[in-house]
Every structure is written in C-alpha cells, then in structure tokens.
C-alpha cells in the first residue's frame, strides 16, 4: 500500500503545475529553490500555523495520503514526521508506522525555522537538503520565505528534479499562505528584462572548447525520475 503511495508521490512531482517558486541556483549535483508570500496575519499567528503542517500541507505529497498525519516539533532535533495509521483487515491486525521527513536544526519562534532532510522522491537518494523558512514583518502583515537547498549525488536529471521540487515547494507555501490570507506573491511580479549577453569570440580558446566537448561526451547520462523509481513499479 505505502509503496504505491510513494510511487504516486514521486509521479506527482513530475507533473507540470503553474510555476510559483524559482530555481535560483542550479549545479551539476545541487540546486536551490526559493519562494515568497506576504500574508495578512502577524508573525505570531504565522508561526503557529507554520508549525501545524497538518492544517496546510498538501495530502498528495504524503505517504499516508492524509496531511492530518503530518506533525512538527519546533525544537532542535525535533521531528517533522508523518504517522502511518494501522491498516486493519478482516484477516490481520494492522501495525502503525511513521516517516521522518526532516529534522529541526533551528527554531526561533516568530522568525525562522530550519530543517534538514530530503523530501519526497529525494528521500531515497544520498543527498542533503536544508529547508529554511523565514518570517519577516511586512507593511501588510508577514512575509514568508521558503528556501530549499539540495546537494549531493542523485539518480535524476538535476534540472528536471529541481523544477519538480520547485513546484511542490510552491504548493506547500501556497497552502500555508492561503490558510492565513494571501496579500501578494513574488511570482506575480513581472521580472526585469535580462541584460543582453556580450558576444564572445568562440575562437579565443579552441583547446578549452574541445576539452569541454570531450568531457560532455564522456559524462554518463542521468536517468529520469520514473526510471529511478522503476524498481518500485514492479508488482511484488
């Protein structure tokens, strides 16, 4: 049952949703996504909502299928965890389980929450993930900023998984913001036109250019999100 939920959660990350957040950094084995919202609530009310994820987390991105099973202890080493309820049948008595999504490393009430952990399909990969949530006083209420930094080897095409995670983090922040009353979204503001790139002399360093092409040919291709979870698709 839970294996199927894991597959569904991984697959949902690959779906295209309206982009709200932004991948602000992208490297060969790392990426950073950032999103921001302004809500009408003050910092205390926003903090209390933030540490109650069962009220706003998207159930589609849970192992149990119900966000009400999400819980967070806002203290150092506290757990952002999920209960897996027992599933009783006529033949067997169910056993309850649990999932550790992240561990709290910093909790400053009304100001900042930092947690470490790999979310969603990244949980099966040897990567480190750090989610920093900041709350700042704004003219209309409180500005909430989510920044999620991920680094390490992963069996995904990094640009693809970065975009998927970016979309999911935006969904979570949107859920929190809507529960508090949204004032504005940074994503709704038009971005300034990018400056034109200066022309480069391709013949300036032919040796360096050929070496880069050789390195690209030698690099092993990454696998897709679906391929990385392919072993879970087989019926046991």
Topology diagram in text:
Layout: H1 2-13, E1 22-27, E2 30-39, H2 43-50, E3 70-72, E4 79-84, E5 97-108, E6 112-116, E7 127-137, E8 142-152, H3 158-180, E9 182-185, H4 206-218, H5 225-228, H6 230-233
Antiparallel strand pairs: 1-2, 2-8, 2-9, 3-4, 4-5, 5-6, 6-7, 7-8
Describe the structure concisely for a colleague.
The protein is of the alpha+beta class.
Which descriptors apply to this entry?
disordered N terminus; single chain; 236 residues; alpha+beta; 6 helices; SRPBCC family protein; disordered C terminus; nine-stranded antiparallel beta sheet
What is the beta-strand fraction?
25-35%
Q: Quick check: average pLDDT?
A: 80
Q: SSE string, helix = H, strand = E?
A: HEEHEEEEEEHEHHH
Structural class: alpha+beta
Domains (count) = 1
Query: Poorly predicted ranges (pLDDT <50, ≥5 residues)?
Result: 1-20, 197-210, 228-236
- The CATH topology turns out to be Alpha-D-Glucose-1,6-Bisphosphate, Chain A, domain 4
Major β-sheet profile: 9 strands, antiparallel
Q: Termini separation (Å)?
A: 11 Å
Q: What is the CATH architecture assignment?
A: 2-Layer Sandwich
Query: How many whole angstroms does the radius of gyration measure?
Result: 21 Å
Q: For the record, what CATH class applies?
A: Alpha Beta
Proportion of helical residues: 25-40%
Spatial shape: globular
Number of helices: 6
For the secondary structure, the number of strands is: 9
Q: Looking at this structure, what is the CATH superfamily?
A: START domain
Keywords: Signal
Organism: Pontixanthobacter aquaemixtae
Protein name: SRPBCC family protein
InterPro entries: START-like_dom_sf
């Amino acid at each position: 049952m839970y294996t199927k939920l894991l597959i569904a959660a991984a697959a949902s990350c690959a779906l295209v949703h309206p982009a709200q957040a932004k991948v602000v950094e992208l490297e060969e084995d790392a990426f950073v996504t950032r999103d921001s919202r302004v809500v009408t609530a003050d910092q205390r009310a926003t903090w209390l909502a933030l540490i109650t994820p069962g009220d706003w987390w998207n159930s589609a991105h849970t192992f149990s299928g119900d966000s009400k099973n999400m819980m967070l202890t806002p203290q150092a080493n506290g757990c952002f965890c999920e209960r897996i309820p027992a599933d009783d049948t006529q033949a067997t008595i169910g056993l309850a389980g649990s999932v550790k999504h992240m561990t709290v490393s910093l909790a400053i009430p009304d100001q900042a929450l930092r947690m470490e952990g790999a979310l969603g399909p990244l949980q099966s990969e040897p990567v480190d993930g750090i989610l920093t949530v900041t709350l700042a006083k704004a003219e209309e209420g409180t500005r909430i900023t989510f920044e999620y930094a991920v680094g390490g080897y992963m069996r995904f095409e990094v640009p693809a998984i970065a975009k998927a995670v970016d979309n999911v983090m935006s969904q979570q922040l949107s859920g929190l913001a809507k529960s508090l009353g949204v004032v504005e979204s940074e994503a709704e503001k038009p971005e300034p036109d990018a400056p034109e790139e200066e022309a480069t002399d391709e013949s300036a360093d032919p040796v360096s250019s050929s070496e880069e092409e050789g390195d690209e040919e030698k690099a092993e291709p990454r696998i897709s999100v679906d391929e990385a979870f392919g072993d879970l698709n087989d019926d046991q």
